[in-house]
Amino acid sequence: MNAFILGNPEKCIGCKACEIACSVAHLDISVVKANEMNIPFISRLNLVRTSAATMPVQCRQCEDAPCANVCSVGAIVHKDNCNIVLEEKCIGCKECMLACPFGMLEMQPKSAQGEMEFQAGLKVESINGEQQKAYVVMQKCDLCTGRAEGPACIEVCPANAFVIVNSEFIRRNLNQKRISSAQEIAKCRYIRNS
What is the pLDDT of residue 27? Predict the structure, then answer.
């Protein structure tokens, strides 16, 4: 079973520490150098604010992933109990964005060592003449795969608003629900028999 991260709207304080931590965790250079080079900080999760709730939302790592199922080039694969985007295969067609039921995939500029990558042939016409077109790829939560400390958003959240939903978490919750159900049924029978 794929693990995923779930935010709790009852605990979230809307501080955006999770977005910042996610951005920093996915930089391939230091934060200081990224700032000096004016590289945008791009998060793979989104803090959603509505009148009813404030909550971080990110990829649910679907078992039968609609994004992977529609990807015509096979750029979304299952690895380390997680669905990840192989940026080198992504052609930026946006099929996966449309298929995601949670709206959690976004096109982002591709960079290496802090330098934006540009397409070889496609140019952009502007008032300044033809310019190189940035190479953009799909990005989504990868559970900070390869990060020794685990997901950065969980580590920095001051409100402990995140939980990793995995098979153990689900098993515990199902057992608690079953026990509660059994107790309610037993209580109803006791009341009827009294």
Answer: 85
Which residue shows structure tokens 């200081």?
32
User: What is the residue extent of each domain of the chain?
Assistant: 4-168
Q: Is 140 left (phi over 0), alpha (psi -120 to 50) or beta?
A: beta
Chain segment 60-75, per-residue pLDDT in tens: 999 999 999 999 999 9
What number is the average pLDDT over the span 136-155? 93
CA–CA dist 169, 155 (Å, integer):
18
**Ramachandran bin of 46, using left for φ above 0, alpha for ψ from -120 to 50, beta for the remaining angles:** beta
The answer to whether the beta carbons of residues 104 and 46 sit under 8 Å apart is: yes
End-to-end CA distance of the chain: 45
Q: Which comes out higher in pLDDT, residue 73 or 194? A: 73
